[in-house]
Amino acid sequence: MPISTVFEGKTEYMQILDKDSKVDAELDPGLPDEVLDRMYRLMVLGRLWDHKCINLQRTGRMFTYPPLEGQEAVSVGSVLAVKPEDWLFPSYREWFIYHIRGGPLSMVNMVWMGMEEGMKLDKNLRVYPYAIPIASNLPHAVGAAYALRMKGEKCACIAYCGDGATSEGDFHDALNFAGVWHVPCVFVICNNQWAISVPRKKQTDSETLAQKALAYGFSGVQVDGNDVLAVYKAVKEAADAARAGKGPKVVECITYRIGAHTTADDPKRYRSEDEVLYWRERDPIKRFLFYLEKKGIWSEAYEHKIHEEADRLIEDAITKAESFRQDPKEMFRYVYAGMTRNLEEQMKECFGEEGK
Amino acid sequence: MLMKANMVEALNLCLKQEMEKDNSVVVIGEDVGVDGGVFRVTEGLFAKFGKDRVIDSPLSEDGIIGSAIGMAAFGLRPVAEIQFQGFDYQGYHQVVQHLARMRNRTRGSITLPMVLRLPYSGGIKALELHSESLETIYIHLPGLKVVCPASPYDAKGLLAASLDDPDPVIFFEPKRLYRAFKEEVPEERYTLEIGKAKIAKEGNDVTLISWGAMTYVSMEAVAEAEAQGVSVEHIDLRTLSPCDWETVINSVTKTGRAVVVHEAPKTLGFGAEVAARIAEKALLSLEAPVKRVTGWDISIPYPKQEDYYFPDKKRILKGILDTARF
After folding, report:
1. Which one of A91, A180, A333, A336 would you mutate to disrupt binding with B, by most B Cβ within 10 Å of its Cβ?
2. Pick from B28, B170, B73: which is nearest to A177 by CA?
3. For B193, which of A53, A159, A292, B86 is 20 to 30 Å away at the CA?
4. Are A178 and A291 part of one and the same domain?
């Protein structure tokens, strides 16, 4: 018997706007000016907010915080690409997503300020509270997609994870279940090259992360994750297909974490300045700025206006978040739907008979 | 109407009734569909409710628990079956990191009403890791309810109550009792209160506290102790979290003596918590140290020597008599 080939697969890479802002006219999704404007404003706001948060942490007004810088195009491009009825399942570094969906900026970083209320999300915005344990949100997205499909909702579930997450068992389980169940789920892998100090190459010997989809019976695509247009186009196509019943897909976004893993991390211990410089030259915001300038949207006055607006939003959000007063008794009240006798006793012991 | 049923039949009827009553109830697990579950608890459900509601999942405890969490968050009421409690560790991180804490960490915006069924207990000459009884690792997690019936009647009523509960319920099924005996069980739906212990037998000299399979084993020892003139009050906890401490403390205050029986290893088994609570609330009533009759602090032996491990009638009886005569 001759030996035959039983499987062959390929994984494509897409870039629309390169680092020098050259655009591939054929692939350009041709988005209306107001969408391009929104993309840019959000990416700038994300970055300014990010810098502010590091500042807040350094001055003792915020606890440990995971910086976003460099990855703005993945969050912004993917969220604007999908429909409001689609559900989003972020990982912790996609904290900005809730604001992109319309949630108040003050809520976004309340968690990093140490308050559970930052997880009390408005269900109408269809953002699932982000997971801290790596990849553990992915099986939830698959179960959610199963439940939503069963209820007859035509929507997709967009689940986010990083490159390190692809080494977790949860990643395997989620993709495997998604394939078998053929659920409308899009897995966005934000490949930022580093899982704290461990580089992408040490996570897996696979050439790409996108190709892992093939083993689960569906396809993956790799895109330049610093190209907001490519992220937008790839995620939109994947979500549209998922909603139309064509099953799950992986979108691997190649990007870079310019900042530290968290404010508790010092990346100088494990990577060179040259590497960071290399990626700064591929900055998602800068290349998009020139693209917008050519379109006649961007000008210095426009930039100035956006910064002013962002500063106002940020100041307002900080004031609101810092002035939020928690009720400490809630840490007992939300353990179960009703208070148990045991917890009532412990609450009294904690706060005294009259309460704090 | 009453029917004679063993525990498997009672659980099966309960699931059928819950699925008829509520379209959002789905069953998920390994072999729960076409095969009806390895213990046949889900027998017939696949034929009646179809593959979308009775899901033969891929072989992954993590995938089962993790996706069931997603289903529960999005309006379904999953009943997830892990074939043996000794295999739930591959999905246990989902229980710790999400299932138990979701309501609290989101301040009530996401809740996870689901039931995780775990056939546990030994004494059936099963393979390695098929006889575990690690209820403690669930009781230890705030946000979970942990239920463990000891009879067909209790199993049916408690499972129905678990499906009504707004919080995640870990449902320990003593597989040693699956087919051990039949009793009269109402055919129609009924519920038993979660968090309420049952006084299986009233008595005055010693309080015996047990749950699940050990309740059944203890009954023989209790009968023998009574024959030897010791009056035993036997409490079947039925729910381990939240535990009905009031019933325990009231009884020990009356008898002044307590024996707690479980299959799990002694160190940090739930018996340790029972003894500590009695010490906190009823120390001055005690006439004897609280006695723990438990599994040893060893991994459960392979079947040939497993009888050395599990508390049996003889060991429990000795525990009762030693405590009564202290």
Report:
1. A336
2. B28
3. B86
4. yes
Q: Which residues of A touch B195 (CB under 8 A)?
A: 340
> For residue A265, is it within any domain?
yes
Q: Tell whether A5 is covered by a domain.
A: no
Inter-chain CB proximity A140 and B98 less than 8 Å: yes
CATH T-level assignment (fold) for domain B2-186:
Rossmann fold (3.40.50)
Q: State the residue for tokens 């140490």.
A: A114
Per-residue pLDDT at A353 = 72
Phi-psi region of B143 (alpha: psi -120 to 50; beta: other; left: phi over 0): left
CATH of the domain at A319: 3.40.50.970
Q: Does residue A103 belong to any structural domain of this protein?
A: yes
CA distances from A1 to A4, B178 (A): 9, 51
Please indicate, yes or no, whether residues A307 and A346 belong to a single structural domain of this protein: no
Q: Check CB contact under 8 Å for B166 and A151.
A: no
Q: Which residue(s) pair with B77 in the sheet?
A: B25
DSSP result, A154-168: ---EEEEEETGGGGS
Among chain A residues, CA nearest to B93: A136
Q: Would you list the DSSP string of B207-257?
A: EEEE-THHHHHHHHHHHHHHHTT--EEEEE--EEETT-HHHHHHHHHHHS-
- State which H helix or E strand residue B20 sits in: helix B7-21
Two tokens, residue B130: 């098929």
Q: Is the model's pTM score more than 0.80?
A: yes
At A355 the pLDDT is: 52
**Token pair of A228 as six digits:** 């907001």
A182 is catalytic: no
Close Cβ partners of A3 (under 8 Å, ≥ 6 residues apart): none
Judge if A104 and A221 occupy the same domain. Answer: yes
Which segments of chain A have a pLDDT < 50?
A: 356
Predicted pLDDT at A108: 84
Q: Which of B67, B104, B144 to mutate to test the interface with A (most CBs of A within 10 A)?
A: B67
Q: Where are the domains of chain B?
A: 2-186, 198-324
Give yes or no for a contact between B225 and B232, defined as CB atoms under 8 angstroms apart: yes
Q: Do B70 and A123 touch (CB under 8 A)?
A: no
pLDDT at A109: 84
The CATH architecture one would assign to domain B198-324 is 3-Layer(aba) Sandwich (3.40)
